[in-house]
Design goal:
The complex is a heterodimer of chains A (249) and B (222).
Chain A lengths: L8 H33 L13 H28 L2 H33 L7 H22 L3 H29 L18 H52 L1
Helix pairs in contact in A: 1-6, 2-3, 2-5, 2-6, 3-4, 3-6, 4-5
Chain B lengths: L1 H16 L3 H20 L3 H24 L4 H6 L1 H7 L4 H30 L4 H28 L7 H27 L6 H30 L1
Helix pairs in contact in B: 1-6, 2-3, 2-6, 3-6, 3-7, 3-8, 6-7, 6-9, 7-8, 7-9, 8-9
The chains are: A mainly alpha (249), B mainly alpha (222).
């Protein structure tokens, strides 16, 4: 049984119904452990004091903001190449969740920036590129909502998502060229992380917990979307049979 | 190539004769430039300093406005369906429309920029730099705009939505256009680096746009 077996919506619904409660539980557990570590075992930063704890929300949110777009782009390839309805459901379900995590990254970044940089908003390269990512999420959602028939909009939005995926690295690069204040990457580096393990471990646990939460939310949103589409086709069928009955009478 | 040429000639004729689409963008650009001193005050030194940015933003917005109906009008009267069924691939039809659209909006906007720049008290070398960078950047803006126009062609009211979708994608072109202009005017940074990146962005958009726009039109009209 391969990955593509789950592409069957009915099989997906059965499988996800069994998996979802476990996912919720696991996400809650890992997040609880991560939050405990973030608040109690992680030390204060010698310069930033307690504000450094914002990082344990900020960094996972920023990571998921990018992960969700990658998921949308991958699903869009599925929509365009295999024309699979579940790929579109996956992309559509991921967009609002991704937008929410992007918003969370922006807000926590702003709250962190006020005590550290002395301003709520700074036109720094990373902040700006995350803001642009947020705008692109909103654009995707707006385009989806503009089509009254979900099937028709699916592939058009997939084209936009892929154009965006090609453009995002270019935007990132140009904005970096334009202005830089944010600290450079410090977790994933060739010479090993520069963060002390007492802070790195809570961060990794929080990142794992947030990712589990994202997966659970995503699957739940996909289930809702599948149900919404079934309801829609049932309503259409009911409306047709009413008209047919009237025509006979 | 005859179909390609015929399509381009048709687009050019339509832009010049019908509703004066070509001139409309330039007039809109002039209006935007006229509004700015009312917003920031008639201080000539300030206007000269922010002049390149104003011209670039003005051209970007005017170009966007003109592109809104790039495929919409053809979709309404059915010629877009004919283009889809024609032996000429839709990608090449998009290329023809993009070139024609640039000739009738991007180029006139670029050529009118120095005149409006003089009204903003910009020195001659700054005017030259703006024209040069606009000449390199406007084809890219037109290409990216074409993608947006194609994505919204199936919608009855796509205008504002198209602008929202397209403007984030135009940011790299704006950044490198402005940095090349700045490098040419005041610079310590070299001019060629951002200018070459700007050219690269335009060329890249010229490759990506026909494919993406043609795909979006096919899906939209099914």
């Amino acid at each position: 049984m391969g990955v593509f077996d789950f592409a069957n919506p009915t099989r997906f619904m059965n499988f996800s119904a069994r998996v979802l409660p476990w996912l919720w539980g696991l996400a809650a557990l890992v997040l609880a452990v991560g939050l405990y570590m973030a608040f109690f075992t992680a030390p204060q930063d010698y310069q930033q004091g307690n504000t450094v704890r914002i990082m344990f929300i900020h960094v996972p949110a920023a990571w998921l903001a990018m992960f969700a777009y990658a998921l949308i782009a991958t699903s869009s390839i599925g929509t365009l190449v295999w024309r699979h309805p579940l790929a579109d459901v996956s992309a559509r379900a991921a967009a609002p969740i991704g937008a929410a995590f992007t918003f969370l990254a922006l807000v926590t970044g702003s709250l962190w920036g006020k005590p550290m940089w002395g301003t709520w908003w700074e036109w720094d390269a990373r902040l700006t590129s995350v803001l642009i990512l947020f705008l692109m999420y909103l654009g995707l959602i707006a385009l989806w909502r503009a089509f009254d028939d979900p099937g028709r909009g699916a592939r058009i939005v997939a084209v936009l998502a892929l154009v965006g995926a090609v453009n995002l690295p270019i935007i990132k690069f140009s904005v970096d060229w334009w202005n830089t204040l944010h600290q450079p990457a410090s977790v994933f580096r060739f010479d090993g992380p520069t963060i002390h393990p007492t802070i790195l471990w809570p961060l990794l646990v929080m990142a794992l917990g947030a990712t589990l939460l994202f997966v659970a939310l995503h699957i739940a949103a996909m289930r809702n979307e599948v149900l919404r589409r079934r309801l829609r086709s049932m309503q259409a069928r009911a409306a047709r049979s009413t008209i047919a009955a009237r025509a006979v009478a | 190539m005859t179909a390609f040429n015929a399509l381009m000639a048709r687009e050019l004729r339509l832009a010049i004769r019908l509703g004066g689409g070509a001139m409309m963008a330039v007039i809109f650009f002039l209006t935007v430039v006229t509004l700015i001193p009312f917003a920031v005050g008639p201080d000539l030194n300030l206007l000269a300093r922010i002049g390149p940015a104003l011209l670039w933003i003005g051209v970007l917005l005017s170009n966007l406005l003109a592109l809104d109906r790039m495929f919409q009008a053809d979709q309404e009267d059915g010629s877009l369906d004919l283009m889809l069924m024609a032996p000429l691939p839709m990608e090449l039809s998009v290329v023809a429309k993009v070139i024609a659209s640039w000739l009738t909006t991007g180029l006139p906007l670029t050529l009118s920029a120095p005149l409006f720049g003089m009204m903003l008290n910009m020195p001659p070398e700054a005017l030259g730099a703006v024209v040069l960078t606009l000449l390199a950047g406007t084809p890219g803006l037109t290409c990216v705009g074409a993608i947006g126009a194609a994505l919204t062609v199936a919608l009855r009211r796509g205008g504002l939505l198209m602008a929202i979708l397209v403007m984030p994608l135009m940011i790299p072109i704006l950044i490198f256009g402005i940095s090349a202009t700045g490098a040419a005017i005041t610079g310590p940074t070299p001019f060629m680096t951002p200018f070459l990146v700007l050219l690269g962005l335009s060329l890249g958009a010229f490759v990506l746009a026909p494919v993406a726009a043609a795909a979006a039109i096919r899906f939209g009209l099914e």
